[in-house]
Amino acid sequence: MTYDEFGLFHENAEEWGLPFDEAPVVRREYVEVTPGRQLSALVWGTAAPELVLLHGGAQNAHTWDTVALALGHPLIAVDLPGHGYSGPRPDAPFAPRAFAADVDVVVRALAPDAQVLVGMSLGGATAMVMGAHYPGNFRQMVLVDATPAFDPVKAAPIGEFVRGPEYFNSFDEILERTMRFNPTRSESSLRRGVLHNAVERPDGTWVWRHQQHWTPPTTEGATEPPPVPDFESLWEDVEHSEIPILLVRGTAPGTLVDEVGLTELARRRPDAEVIAVDGAGHSVQGDKPLVLAGILGDLFED
Question: What domains does the chain contain, in order, with CATH numbers?
Answer without folding.
Answer: 9-151+234-298 (3.40.50.1820), 156-224 (no CATH)
